[in-house]
């Protein structure tokens, strides 16, 4: 895809009439991938979101072919409890970045990052945002880290599939910064998942910094 083709994409808030093409793109995007990497969804999942349980934003080419979409879900979905796992206030406004798909011919042009940015912009002001991503799917969690999310936990969800739980607050985001002088830091690469789980449960956080993906134990927690 050329830069000109990217600039010609048209972004829309999708509605109930778009259900069939959303689901068709979802099926194409997950073809050949197992549940250890992505979560298959049913038409009913998208139908509920389009009916008011959330918002779906999409990008269309000049012929109005849907080439990418991203889901913003209101509230946590059953089986994931970021409010309990992360100690969020009982009445916190929670929204989930609940999946996205990009057509094969449009991959490699940072559309996943753009979908994250646009969903964060759609979120309610001050909302607590979260997403899940398989450790075996680095393209997904690295994109989220690049847009200000932090890896906060490792959990088995979605019929016992291992997922990172990533979170951030809605609102403006500054570019990733180097850890503060008082922070403890360990490179993420090379750490076993068991060791990652142990550190995350102690308050360490996965971040993207100019030097790469790291686990940080902040001296001061925001």
Automatic annotation (TrEMBL):
What top-level branch of life does the organism fall under? Bacteria
In Swiss-Prot or TrEMBL terms, this protein is called N-acetyltransferase domain-containing protein
Domain N-acetyltransferase: start-end pairs: 9-171
Q: What Gene3D superfamilies does the record tag this protein with?
A: 3.40.630.30
């Amino acid at each position: 895809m050329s830069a000109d083709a990217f600039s010609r994409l048209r972004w829309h808030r999708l509605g109930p009439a778009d259900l069939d093409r959303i689901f068709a793109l979802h099926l194409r995007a997950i073809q050949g991938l197992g549940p250890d990497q992505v979560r298959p969804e049913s038409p009913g999942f998208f139908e509920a979101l389009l009916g008011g349980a959330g918002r779906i934003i999409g990008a269309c080419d000049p012929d109005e072919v849907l080439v990418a979409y991203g889901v913003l879900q209101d509230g946590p979905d059953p089986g994931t409890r970021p409010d309990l796992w992360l100690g969020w206030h009982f009445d916190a406004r929670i929204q989930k970045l609940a999946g996205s798909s990009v057509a094969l011919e449009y991959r490699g042009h940072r559309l996943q990052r753009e979908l994250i940015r646009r969903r964060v912009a759609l979120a309610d002001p001050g909302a607590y945002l979260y997403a899940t991503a398989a450790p075996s799917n680095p393209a997904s969690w690295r994109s989220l880290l690049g847009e200000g999310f932090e890896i906060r936990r490792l959990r088995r969800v979605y019929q016992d599939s291992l997922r990172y739980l990533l979170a951030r607050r809605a609102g403006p985001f500054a570019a990733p910064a180097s850890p503060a002088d008082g922070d403890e830091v360990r490179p993420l690469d090379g750490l076993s998942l068991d060791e990652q789980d142990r550190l995350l449960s102690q308050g360490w956080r996965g971040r993207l910094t100019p030097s790469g993906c790291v686990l940080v134990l902040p001296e001061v927690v925001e």
